[in-house]
Amino acid sequence: xxxxxxQQAKDVRIAAAELAAARPHPRHVDNGDEQKLRRVEPDPCExxxxxxxxxxxxxxxxxxxxxxxxxxxxxIENASDxxxxxxxxxxxxxx
Length: 95
Hints:
Blueprint: H1 2-22, H2 33-36, E1 39-41, E2 54-56, H3 79-91
Antiparallel strand pairs: 1-2
């Protein structure tokens, strides 16, 4: 009897896994927050000319825990850290 219950539980798990695997997976689309929350930064070559300011990502709406942050602004120190993080996620390689 115990063996029958164990087999039945296994069969239920397999059926659930097959159902989940057959389900279509939606494409993940960003919600635009990174564009909405960009910050303005002066051009280092012409810091006194506001027309030369550029819009840069702030990454306020993204997961940045574990990355070095500026203690004054709370923003990540180096945008390339975030880009490497995204590249790693997109690669699908857990290493």
